[in-house]
Design a protein that fits this description.
Layout lengths: L2 H5 L12 H36 L11 E8 L4 E4 L4 E3 L7 E7 L5 H15 L8 E7 L10 H4 L3 E4 L2 H7 L11 E5 L4 E7 L4 H17 L9
Parallel strand pairs: 4-5, 5-6
Antiparallel strand pairs: 1-8, 2-3, 2-6, 4-7, 7-8
Helix pairs in contact: 2-6
């Protein structure tokens, strides 16, 4: 080393030490991110629960009693006719869970039993029954007997043609729509079918299926449209 270099002052690169407030700010930022992640996860749980209730109750697509319909059958531009003759778009039924049955306007004893069970199933939901409308779709052009008006009570009664029934409801090959109660979600998707006739044990299982769906959708669905 030359003499001139020895006489020069030694230069040291000194890096500033982190300030305490910078460390605290970093820790707060990390805590904030974890807190945001936790809140996001909690907010997502209802949607995840609804998804599982729709499609993951059982790996074979079976609910406790009903059978899940996958893919779901969304309502489109189909129309039906009310008993007073007015045409009604089926999409106007959106906003409520629906329990739907299908049958002839003549409605024999078996049909009346199905309607009775449909109404009673809704009643067993207690305070949640106001989130569910029961719908009777008439599949022919015969007149509804006047004696049926009182038992139907607050049911939505519409006359629908076969093309409408086929496009909105999902009936297994070789079966008739009258053999099932169809569950439609508030978005208008037909997503489950239940046997239309059941005993006491079957009624309890059907109610459990509906309650599971109603609980899973409670965060985004309420009574009324």
């Amino acid at each position: 080393m030359t003499e001139s270099h020895r006489d020069e002052p030694l230069e040291l690169a000194v890096h500033s030490m982190p300030k305490p407030q910078d460390t605290a700010t970093g820790q707060a930022s990390i805590y904030g991110r974890w807190k945001l992640l936790a809140v996001t996860l909690l907010c997502s749980l209802p949607a995840l629960g609804a998804y599982l209730a729709y499609f993951g109750i059982h790996p074979q697509g079976k609910a406790g009693f009903g059978e899940l319909i996958a893919p779901v059958r969304p309502v489109g531009g189909q129309t039906a006719v009310a008993l007073d003759g007015r045409v009604r778009a089926l999409s106007t039924l959106k906003g409520q869970w629906l329990l739907v049955s299908v049958g002839s306007a003549l409605c024999d004893a078996a049909c009346q039993q199905r309607l009775f069970l449909q109404r009673q199933l809704r009643e067993t939901l207690g305070k949640d029954k106001d989130r569910v409308d029961w719908v009777w779709l008439i599949s022919d052009n015969d007149a509804v007997d006047a004696s049926m008006h009182k038992p139907l009570g607050d049911a939505v009664v519409l006359r629908a043609d076969q093309a409408t029934l086929d496009s909105w409801l999902d009936v297994p090959s070789g079966q008739a729509a009258a053999q099932y109660l169809f569950v439609v979600d508030p978005m208008g998707n037909t997503m489950m079918r239940l046997p239309a006739l059941f005993d006491g044990a079957g009624a309890a299982k059907a109610r459990a299926d509906l309650q599971r769906l109603l609980r899973a959708s409670a965060s985004w669905d309420g009574p009324g449209r």
